[in-house]
Amino acid sequence: MFYRMVVRSGACQRTAVRDVSAMVRSDPCQRTVSLGIAMGAGAVESCTCGPAVWFGRIRSWMHISEDDMPRMFGTDGVRGLANRDLTAQLALDLGDAAVRVLGDDDGTNDRKTGRRRALIGRDTRVSGDFLSNALAAGMSAGGFDVIDAGIIPTPGVAYLTSVLNVEMGAVISASHNPMPDNGIKFFARGGFKLPDTKEDEIEAVLGQDWERPTGAGVGRVSHDSNTATNMYIDHLVATVAPIVDGTQTKPLKGLKVVADCANGATSVVAPEALRRAGADVIVINASPDGYNINKNAGSTHTEQLQAMVKASDADLGVAFDGDADRCLAVDEDGTLVNGDQIMGILARAKQREGKLNHDTLVVTVMSNLGLKLALKDMGIKTVQTNVGDRYVLEEMLRGDYSLGGEQSGHVINREFATTGDGTLTALTLCKEIVDSGRSLKDLAADFPQLPQQLINVPNVDKMAAKTNEAVLAAVAREEELLGDTGRVLLRPSGTEPLVRVMAEAATQEQADEVTARLAKVVADELAL
Question: Which of its termini does the chain have fewer beta carbons within 10 Å around, N or C?
Fold first, then answer.
């Protein structure tokens, strides 16, 4: 099991590690648990009668409040280096804890008879093999029958969790991260990501003993990748190309699309869905071998896609990440079209069709000011959330909004999905190109982006960025300088001692200068 614990004291971090190690060695229990102390070297190994007990002791010893302790679950589940941070034991424990928390009947279970069930899917990382087996073992030992859907996009698991009426879904993926990393995230009944409170409940019971079932009470594990994949593809195609009188419609006929699948989970799904909707599809990076996911490919490395679109004279290209919950695009000239521009195009299309609830698009604090200004001129409002598609969805559900997403390419279309779905985004974007009769370049030009600069400032007290007087004064000065023509944003990282400093301005030179000045203040004032 792993925790990353941020030590915010003036004491030498090596001393902190050494002293905690001594405390750990003195404990009489024998069970091994790893405690990684971020910003310093080393991990201490201990025994414990449960992580909640141990970390309570450590909080008390180090005078760290519960609010200051980092959560095991980040903005998109539990992530780390596979087999170092994210081990088979942790996957087993997470499966065990999840069935205890998500298996409780809260009165919404309309399937009154039969065994409780869970669905597991994963991306193409080699570590997904042992992690999926361990996760399934934890769930089945807890009494759940587990359906292992194999390699399938994250939004496919969300969709199937909903339509198969299972108690929960789980995805093993680190999304756009490099291959050595991996992660585990859960979906509740209905296909929605868990709120923080449910994740905290899972963390609270992690590793605890309980009265596990025996005999016929333990669960089975079944494998059915083909059925799961085909059900998901059928759903995707139906969103843009319904079957009419027994015949598959082809609304994308005549559109030439290059699809970069990042050697990830949508290597089969996206090409098949686009082809069935009528598109002429050229596929690149769709030969996963367990090691090449996201490697110089997909939404984080679009250079190959940009070159292929131009070389093949395609109408557009679409790029997915490893688990295909995001999509970026490339126009016919090979120019990148980001998530903000895609959201703008789709929001206007929904507004035209009368399907943009409350004429509002939900965005995050990272969305470009240019998007908001362009939408305002079109009579479309924006509502802003923290970074993370889960927070976008929470706001969409709260306000009954139908479309939202992130600049990174996570787009949530509530008409058809409960989470960001890259393949769905690609299909609906292609359909708008056909329906509007305009090129992607022309459509994207309606949503110009203000010049933006982003600097990551490492090794700083990230939480003090919200309270340090010198930093706040510097931000106020820059905001006064920019006026209505730009903005600044300081955002602490969710996983490391780092602050992201972002500025948007009328010119790139001004954005660069503002960001450089603020980054220096942050580095000087908040250095650890």
Answer: C
